[in-house]
């Protein structure tokens, strides 16, 4: 298990005075929080809170790297906000336009030639590519808002499908459909944009 | 025989629930003969991996 920075557990922190480094991380934290919450003001607030919490408990421990540690604090604060939001049921989760997803398949349900997924190469190579991460974030930002919300809860925050549907008051099979569409959209966006970049290199 | 549309849906569900034995077998057979879906499956795994590490990645050396 990795260290978690929840409010009821003591948080480990690097021992130096890290305020300089923390402010350097601020932009990245802000981008991360905005991606998750899709609300710039809320993102600024939560980043500010995380930095304050980090500075307060600075000097406890040197086990975690500053970045890992401060993002753990931030992530926990974001989870709290998302959980809080989830108490309000999501409306109209399934009304998005599916034309572009269906168009990938022919009338027998097989891939159309131009949409057939291609080999992206070695996962390690892809993950080591800075450009991939930027495009990934951009693609994530292009997901329909509610779809992105469910997808984040599942894939980034690691909640179980059952927990997500319960919190959002939607059926388990709806949750699967939402996840399926999110993955499909994300994949399509990555293949269209990342691979084009690669080809251009 | 299973088509790609159905296979992609099952691959996604496989990340969220345990597939039944019959589903797993059908999918396995489909993946053996379908390049596109086989690539799709690897891409889903990469997306999952990427999502886990989003934010707080350690900077490259």
Describe this structure in words.
The complex is a heterodimer of chains A (201) and B (61). By secondary structure, chain A is an all-alpha fold. Helix content of chain A is 63%, strand content 0%. Chain B has helices spanning 4-13, 21-33, 35-52. The radius of gyration of chain B is 14 Å and the shape is globular.
Residue fraction in strands of chain A: under 5%
Total helix count of chain A? 9
Shape of chain A: globular
Distance between the termini of chain B: 49 Å
Q: Provide the structure class of chain A.
A: mainly alpha
Overall, the morphology of chain B is globular
Write down the overall mean pLDDT of chain A. Answer: 79
The rounded Rg of chain A comes to 19 Å
User: Cα-atom Rg of chain B, whole angstroms?
Assistant: 14 Å
Number of strands of chain B: 0
- Please report which band the strand proportion of chain B falls in: under 5%, 5-15%, 15-25%, 25-35%, 35-45% or over 45%: under 5%
Sequence-ordered SSE layout with sheet pairings:
The complex is a heterodimer of chains A (201) and B (61).
Chain A: H1 19-37, H2 40-56, H3 66-86, H4 99-102, H5 123-127, H6 130-141, H7 145-156, H8 161-168, H9 172-200
Helix pairs in contact in A: 1-2, 1-3, 2-3, 6-9, 7-9, 8-9
Chain B: H1 4-13, H2 21-33, H3 35-52
Keywords:
heterodimer; A: 201 residues; mainly alpha; 9 helices; disordered N terminus; B: 61 residues; 3 helices
Summarize it.
Chain A is mainly α and 201 residues long.
């Amino acid at each position: 298990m990795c260290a978690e920075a929840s409010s009821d557990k003591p948080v480990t922190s690097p021992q130096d005075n890290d305020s300089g480094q923390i402010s350097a991380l601020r932009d990245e934290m802000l981008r991360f929080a905005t991606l998750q919450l899709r609300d710039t003001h809320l993102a600024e607030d939560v980043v500010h809170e995380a930095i304050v919490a980090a500075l307060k408990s600075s000097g406890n421990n040197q086990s975690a790297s500053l970045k890992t540690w401060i993002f753990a604090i931030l992530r926990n604060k974001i989870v709290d906000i998302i959980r809080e939001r989830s108490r309000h049921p999501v409306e109209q989760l399934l009304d998005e336009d599916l034309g572009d997803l269906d168009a990938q398949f022919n009338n027998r349900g097989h891939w159309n030639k131009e949409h057939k997924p291609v080999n992206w190469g070695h996962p390690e190579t892809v993950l080591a590519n800075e450009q991939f991460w930027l495009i990934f974030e951009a693609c994530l930002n292009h997901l329909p808002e509610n779809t992105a919300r469910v997808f984040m809860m599942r894939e980034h925050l690691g909640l179980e499908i059952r927990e997500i549907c319960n919190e959002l008051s939607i059926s388990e099979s709806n949750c699967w459909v939402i996840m399926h569409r999110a993955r499909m959209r994300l994949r399509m966006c990555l293949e269209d944009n990342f691979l084009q970049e690669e080809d251009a290199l | 025989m299973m088509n790609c549309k159905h296979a992609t849906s099952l691959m996604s569900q496989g990340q969220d629930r345990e597939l039944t034995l019959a589903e797993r077998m059908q999918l396995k057979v489909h993946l053996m003969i379908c390049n596109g879906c086989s690539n799709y499956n690897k891409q889903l795994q990469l997306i999952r991996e990427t999502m886990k590490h989003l934010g707080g990645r350690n900077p490259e050396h």
